[in-house]
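Colleagues,

For the teaching module next term, I've prepared a clean inverse folding example: a structure given as tokens, and then the sequence designed for it. I'd like students to try predicting residues themselves before seeing the answer, so please don't circulate the second half yet.
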């Protein structure tokens, strides 16, 4: 598919997860859909502007809103990454425990099989 030839429906479907859940990142959604994070970021900004989520049409107010949104995006991404790291650490601990149990079981059965 040529660059810039994505349908409006595709763009809307790509933007929806990011706007609906702050734990999603441009990077993650972009990888899932095969678009760059900057492309997705631009689509999100366009959708927010279409919805009027950036404030008034005043240039000064709009610039402040853009700066605030730009500052909030990394903060939201950092919070999402921290939550993901916490989940991954829990899963890693669970897997380490299961691995230890399996090692002990293997040793036990290895000694039992030597008649």
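(Answer key — instructors only)
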């Amino acid at each position: 598919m040529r660059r810039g030839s994505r349908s409006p429906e595709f763009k809307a479907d790509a933007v929806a997860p990011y706007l609906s859940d702050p734990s999603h990142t441009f990077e993650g959604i972009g990888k899932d859909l095969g678009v760059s994070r900057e492309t997705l970021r631009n689509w999100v900004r366009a959708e927010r502007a279409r919805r009027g989520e950036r404030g008034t049409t005043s240039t000064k107010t709009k610039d402040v809103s853009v700066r605030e949104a730009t500052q909030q995006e990394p903060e939201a991404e950092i919070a999402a990454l921290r939550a993901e790291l916490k989940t991954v650490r829990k899963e890693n601990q669970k897997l380490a425990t299961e691995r230890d149990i399996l090692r002990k079981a293997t040793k036990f059965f290895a000694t039992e099989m030597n008649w």
